[in-house]
Amino acid sequence: MLYTEPLSFRELDRLMRSVPNFAPRSHGIVVIRKQEYTAKDCDCRYCPHYSGRGKTRCALDHCDCVAERIIAGAATYREAIAETMSAIHYAPLVRRVDRLLKESEETPMNYRNEKHRIVFTETIKRMNRKNKALMAALYLLTADFTLWSCVKYAVVNNVICFEQVRLRGTNTNSYPLFCAAKDLYLGTKHLTVSDLADAELIPPKVFALICNAMAIRRFGLGAIQYEVTGGM
């Protein structure tokens, strides 16, 4: 006998047609865990496209695993910046990025200077380093000592309270860093693509820092080959 009406009888119908003395079939449990690659996992020698010959030693024009390699900190500075900026087609900015990559072939600039590296590293020790927006903003804010002295009191519990910041004594380089940090963190639009392409408005070294921060915002700290040890 099959019960189809009312709806309350349908569960009884399924029970009556089930095999006796067997537990009812459940939906099961699905465990999904995103693979976190290490630099060792991303060694190009393990890739089927690795040829071992030539300058790039790769048979592909564009690495299929470049995103994973950047995240793991195994990609070159050139690859990280080029992949970050690959969606931008504004010609003046493309030319400026090309100049940056050519200038950085011998000495990639992961930090403004040693002091920037130390302050940034100390600042993020107890913070959520998987929060890419936070890391990108802090990377820029710690690049300028005067700017950081104005902002650091507004950083509480992995949150940057930009509305509490009052800029005092900053220079012409501080403001673009502050605006870029705010844009990357909040999604605001203080700096435009044309602003980034303007070398007079944003000097080369500041431009490089902003490009680095954009790479961090997209791929995480691996974009500047930051080695994460312990912490969050």
What does this protein look like?
With 232 residues, the protein is an all-alpha fold. The chain has a domain at 114-224. It contains 10 helices and 2 strands, in the order αααααααββααα. It has helices at 10-16, 66-71, 77-84, 91-103, 114-123, 132-141, 145-151, 174-186, 193-197, 204-219, and strands at residues 155-156, 159-160. The chain is extended.
User: What's the rounded overall pLDDT mean?
Assistant: 85
Strand-residue fraction? under 5%
**Which quaternary structure do these chains form?**
single chain
Identify the strand order in the major beta sheet.
1-2
Gap between N and C termini: 59 Å
Low-confidence stretches: none
Number of strands: 2
**What is the number of helical segments per DSSP (H or I, 4+ residues)?**
10
Tell me about the biggest sheet?
Answer: 2 strands, antiparallel
**CA-based gyration radius:** 25 Å
Structural class: mainly alpha
Q: What is the share of helical residues?
A: 40-55%
- Helix-strand pattern: HHHHHHHEEHHH
Shape, per Cα inertia axes: extended
Please outline what is shown here.
By secondary structure, this protein is mainly α. The protein has helices at 10-16, 66-71, 77-84, 91-103, 114-123, 132-141, 145-151, 174-186, 193-197, 204-219, and strands at 155-156, 159-160.
